[in-house]
Design a protein that fits this description.
By secondary structure, the protein is an alpha+beta fold. The chain has 6 domains: 123 residues, Beta-Lactamase (2-Layer Sandwich); 102 residues, 2-Layer Sandwich (Beta-Lactamase); 90 residues, PAS domain (Beta-Lactamase); 113 residues, Beta-Lactamase (2-Layer Sandwich); 136 residues, Reverse transcriptase/Diguanylate cyclase domain (Alpha-Beta Plaits, 2-Layer Sandwich); 244 residues, TIM Barrel (Alpha-Beta Barrel), CATH 3.20.20.450. It is 38% helix and 27% strand. It is built from 32 helices and 38 strands. The strands form 7 sheets. The chain has an 8-stranded mixed β-barrel. Helix 28 links the parallel strand 35 and strand 36. The termini are far apart. InterPro entries: Biofilm_reg_signaling (IPR052155), EAL_dom (IPR001633), EAL_sf (IPR035919), GGDEF_dom (IPR000160), Nucleotide_cyclase (IPR029787), PAC (IPR001610), PAS (IPR000014), PAS-assoc_C (IPR000700). This is EAL domain-containing protein. Pfam families: EAL, GGDEF, PAS_4, PAS_9.
């Protein structure tokens, strides 16, 4: 119902309107409601309202026509089903609404259908405004309101049952089941209202195509209905919505039609006998049915009176005895009739074949076909186009007049491979030749304007029951847009959205479908230090870098190569152009050089490099696509481990090493909790007194299957997997407790030295963990020395200084380990408030035989003493090395000459 179709204005009889609304329970005294009424009984619909509508809608002072239009829009959810809704039904609906001043409000509608004799003639209701922020409202809530109104207004009965119990029934359902209130249906078993003979078919097919079933009303009467059940929940107890449409009248009508059809099979047309001067002498039952004149009233009347038209039998006979005329029934309704006239001995026999239904059907058919979005073309047996509907002309891009009489073979069609379909293989030609329907064939159609259109086409015989009829009807739907959308979705499903390169799915697919007889190469590239770019410059810069890297790889490869992004900063290239080792080396170096060109992003010039893993795939290589990517990934990690910015070829031993590494990492996780890890202690000796003054705690792992695992193997594993924080906390807690106990039991003055890794310095839980160890074990802070490698301190000196300062505040001592392997100076180290400097074993080994080594160590000792550091020499293996260190003034030493790392029992007895 459009707004401009309504005549609208304020209600004249204000008191009467308010009284009616209050009587209906829709309007309360002193409320902000505005009463309105919609009348649809006769003539144009009219919409009236009480004063104040402009205020409620937030458009003060606007015209009556504008208010009528706005109110009509608000009422549209209620009026859409109004003609099929019974009187005295109440509805309530809330809708958002924009006032003239731009504020948002909600309009609440409460209405009741009114009418008489079971026919609705309008609405009486009130509306009021509420703030937009009314609690509990949402777009979903409003959608639910609209859906509820539509369900309530539905002329079909709708029930919902869950777990076999009815939970909802709309008004039509109450009427259909003769229920006076919802309580007579809701809460009762659904099966209670289904007859025994129908229960099996209906309840066994809870989600079904339409089926007929017999139901029982509340009063015990039965009726037949067509039902459709739809499941409305995906989990928990199933809930079903059942639409029930009473087909009892339809079945009765069908029975009447069958009875009438039996009669018509004997006498299907009206047969009338008349005298020479046109007086009716015989009137069969068919005539009674067609013209609505009973036999006893029709006989004796003039033929023109009962047919509702003039009839000249002699003129009809002169033109062959058959004429078409428009007759009229007794009530004046027009009839399209084919009249056949024959002479009789005492007048004429007139046979009137009622063609009204056929003509109406033909008209309806032409109207429906003309309104279809689907193109329809009828092709005559000679292959010429007989008719086209407007949709066909629109899709084909040709006016209908230019298609009629044109051979169907002039339409140019192509199959999905792009080949033109020959004239004798066109769907219409094949149907005409074989009589077989060509169903849903997808073809491309070339229009005269050069545009290509994809259509789904069906070709079938116009009259399959006529063995000689080879006229064909072709129907087709334009699927160009749908096909384009499908192509885009398929592309998006197999391509990376950031770089538009192939994604992992497409790369794996191409590898699975590789040309087996030929060789192939997979190059797995990972950008070096990309995380630093992402973390320091932000993800937008990182994304742009990835786009540039992907585009460079695409341009550096051939048209047959596959370039993909697997995620993060990982790219892959699959090529068949470079398959020999020398060729692949050159190709990999070329890709690396292309990536290494400077990248300018947001005014910053960045330099990229990549580590590349390479897999050569032979002609008979049995590995799957997943295996090939895995092996290329392994080779890439090998390249990173050997210094980054290089490429490595995969071999089987590399996979075995990687698999062992993976197994060892998993075993190490279990070792933490299964008692396989233990602490070894190595003595640290004072070179002036020769006494042991400290022990260094070293972590050891005894594997249940492989025995002792070297720290050189499992410590790097722990560093990479971040297990080092767990291991570090374990060794610190265990050794501090052990040494505290030994100091108390034996009165020892030994101190404990424990190593900290790079990752531990980054661990925010390090300081609390050290504080907890000191408080729980009783080890004095000054008896604990935490050792940090020189390279770890120099990695981020400011961050390291912050951590060391926090540790210093706990009272522990700090040492720099492996001094001489990094790039620090003693001045830098002094700013880090260290206590001890440990000279790396590489300077100590062979010191007794090398003046240069001795001179370097002497310089380190002198400079360390100058800034107040205690010097410890690592890796002392011989007595000569020990004696020389004592002469050079070294404070302490440790090494195999002084004592190997041993268990606590061996160390402390």
């Amino acid at each position: 119902m459009e707004a401009d179709a309504l005549a609208g204005g304020p209600i004249d009889d204000t008191d009467s309107a308010i009284w009616r609304a209050r009587l209906a329970g829709l309007h309360q005294a002193d409320s902000g409601d505005v009463v309105f009424a919609l009348h649809t009984s006769a003539g144009p619909a009219t919409l009236t309202w009480l004063p104040g509508l402009d205020t409620v809608l937030g458009h003060p002072g606007v015209s009556g026509n504008e208010l009528s239009g706005r109110l009509t829009d608000l009422l549209s959810p209620l009026t859409v089903q109004l003609p099929r809704t019974r009187p005295d039904r109440d509805f309530e609906l809330e809708q958002p609404y924009d006032a003239a001043d731009g504020t948002r409000r909600r309009i609440r509608l409460r209405a009741r259908t009114v009418g008489d004799q079971g026919c609705t003639t309008g609405l009486l209701g009130v509306l009021s405004a509420m703030p937009e922020d009314s609690p509990g409202r949402s777009d979903l809530g409003e959608l639910a309101d609209r859906y509820r109104v539509l369900v309530e207004l539905s002329p079909d009965a709708i029930c919902v049952h869950q777990g076999g119990m009815i939970t909802y029934a709309n008004r039509a359902a109450l009427d259909l089941f003769a229920a006076r209130s919802p309580a007579e249906l809701v809460g009762r078993p659904f099966a209670e209202f289904v007859t025994a003979e129908s229960a099996g078919g209906l309840l066994a097919n809870a989600e079904s195509e339409p089926i007929e079933a017999m139901f029982t009303r509340v009063d015990g009467s039965k009726f037949t209905a067509e039902t459709i059940s739809v499941r409305t929940t995906d989990s928990g107890t199933p809930s079903y919505q059942v639409v029930i449409r009473d087909v009892t009248p339809k079945l009765a009508a069908a029975a009447a039609v069958r009875a009438r059809a039996a009669l018509v099979s004997q006498v299907s047309d009206a047969i009338v006998a008349i005298t020479a001067d046109g007086i009716v002498t015989s009137w069969n039952p068919a005539a009674e049915s067609v013209y609505r004149w009973p036999m006893h009233e029709a006989i004796g009347r003039r033929i023109r009176e009962v047919l509702g038209a003039e009839l000249d039998p002699e003129a009809a006979l002169r033109t062959g005895g058959v004429v078409g005329q428009t007759h009229h029934r007794r009530d004046g309704a027009p009839l399209s009739v084919q009249v056949s006239v024959a002479e009789a001995t005492d007048g004429y026999v007139v046979v009137c074949a009622d063609q009204t239904a056929r003509h109406r059907a033909e008209l309806h058919y032409r109207t429906v076909v003309a309104a279809l979005d689907e193109g329809v073309v009828v092709v005559r047996p000679d292959g010429l186009i007989e008719s086209v509907n407007p949709a066909a002309a629109r899709i084909l891009g040709v006016p209908p007049a230019q298609l009629i009489g044109v051979p169907c073979a002039t339409l140019v069609l192509y199959d999905e491979s792009g080949a033109r379909i020959p004239a004798d293989e066109l769907p219409s030609a094949r149907t005409r030749r074989t009589g077989i329907t060509q169903n849903g064939q997808v073809v491309r159609l070339r229009r005269p304007d050069g545009r290509d259109v994809w259509v789904a086409l069906t070709s079938r015989l116009l009259d399959p029951d006529d063995p000689h009829g080879v006229a064909v009807v072709i129907s087709f739907t334009d699927i160009t847009e749908r096909r384009a959308i499908s192509a885009r979705l398929a592309h998006d499903a197999t391509h990376d959205p950031l770089t538009r390169l192939a994604n992992r799915t497409l790369v794996l697919d191409r590898l699975d479908r590789r040309n087996r007889p030929g060789a192939t190469t997979v190059l797995f590239l990972d950008l070096d230090k990309f995380k630093l770019i992402n973390d320091s410059l932000g993800h937008p810069v990182g994304d742009q870098v990835l786009r540039v890297a992907g585009e460079r790889l695409r341009r550096a490869t051939g048209p047959a190569d596959v370039v993909g992004r697997l995620g993060g900063d990982e790219f892959v290239v699959v090529t068949t152009e470079a398959t020999e080792v020398a060729e692949v080396r050159t190709f990999a170096a070329h890709l690396r050089s292309v990536l290494a060109e400077p990248v300018t992003v947001h005014g910053r010039q960045l330099h990229l490099d990549a580590s590349t893993g390479i897999v050569l795939i032979g002609e008979t290589d049995p590995r799957s696509a997943e295996d090939l990517l895995r092996d290329a990934d392994i080779a890439m990690y090998q390249a990173k481990a050997r210094g980054r910015g290089r490429f490595e070829f995969f071999d089987v031993e590399m996979r075995m090493r990687m698999q062992r590494r993976l197994r060892m990492e998993q075993d190490l996780r279990e070792a933490v909790h299964s008692g396989q890890l233990w602490a070894a202690y190595q003595p640290v000796v004072d070179l002036r007194t020769g006494e042991m003054v400290a022990v260094e705690a070293l972590l050891r792992w005894t594997h249940p299957k492989h025995g002792a695992i070297s720290p050189a193997e499992f410590i790097p594993l722990a560093e990479e997997s971040e297990l080092i924080n767990i291991l570090g906390k374990f060794i610190l807690q265990d050794t501090a407790r052990e040494l505290a106990a030994q100091r108390t039991e034996h009165g020892l003055g030994l101190s404990l030295k424990v190593n900290l890794s790079v990752r531990q310095l980054d661990d925010p839980h390090l300081i609390p963990a050290v504080r907890d160890v000191l408080s729980t074990t009783g080890l004095p802070p000054e008896a604990l020395t935490l050792e940090v490698t020189e390279s770890a301190l120099m990695r981020d000196a400011s961050a390291a200084a912050e951590v060391l300062t926090a540790l210093r505040s706990l009272g522990v001592l700090l040492a720099i380990d492996d001094f001489g392997t990094g790039y620090s100076s003693l001045a830098q180290l002094r700013r880090l408030t260290l206590d001890t400097l440990k000279i790396d074993r590489s300077f100590i080994t062979g010191i007794a035989d090398s003046r240069d080594a001795a001179a370097i160590v002497a310089s380190i000792i002198a400079m360390a003493h100058a800034v107040g550091l205690t010097v410890v020499a690592e890796g002392v293996e011989t007595a000569d090395e020990l004696e020389l260190l004592r002469e050079l003034g070294c404070d302490q030493a440790q090494g195999y000459h002084l004592g190997r790392p041993v268990s606590a029992r061996e160390m402390f007895g």
